Amino acid sequence: MNNELGRKLKNIRLQNGLTQEEFGDRFLGTKSLVSKWESGRNRPNPERLRKIANFANITVEELLKDAEEPPHLLVGKRIRSIRLKHGMSMTEFGKLIDNVKSGVVSNWENGKQIPNKLRLKKIAKLGNITVDELLDITNYQELYELEKERNSLLVQEIQVLKEQLNLLNKKDTSTKVSK
């Protein structure tokens, strides 16, 4: 896996004297998420990439330079993930997907080949995703986790605002009573 982006993110964090937790807080992430970014297991979503680039006074393009994986490698990783999620060997997976040989499955997973449309449909169905999701470079699981995290932060902010409003209302009532 090309981990140039992870190295760049770690350098940005260290150059600014931040821990993984502090870096995560700055970009609405967790220490664990920052660790995944830096190790190359995950990557920041486009909005976070923009904010991190701004923080580092560079463009997103500079941040991503030499860090992009070709789309066919990402498709291969998704195919491998689907196969492993079902606990199948390459041979078992190949038989299920149009009776192809394990070498063909290996080529898909290594990004050397992309399955044809019929096979893509079968693989996507097995992975409980659409063909578009299988071919898309967006990490939907990460987006889902980020949305959950964002929702949780919004709920916390709403609670703080409610408490502040209650305090203001109490102050307003006590002012009226003392007049």
UniProtKB/TrEMBL annotation:
Superkingdom, natural source: Bacteria
Domain HTH cro/C1-type, residue spans: 9-63, 79-134
CDD domains: HTH_XRE
Key word Coiled coil present: yes
GO molecular function: DNA binding
Coiled coil: 144-171
PANTHER family noted in UniProt: HTH-TYPE TRANSCRIPTIONAL REGULATOR XRE, TRACRIPTIONAL REGULATORY PROTEIN-RELATED-RELATED
Protein name, as recorded: XRE family transcriptional regulator
Species of origin: Mammaliicoccus sciuri (Staphylococcus sciuri)
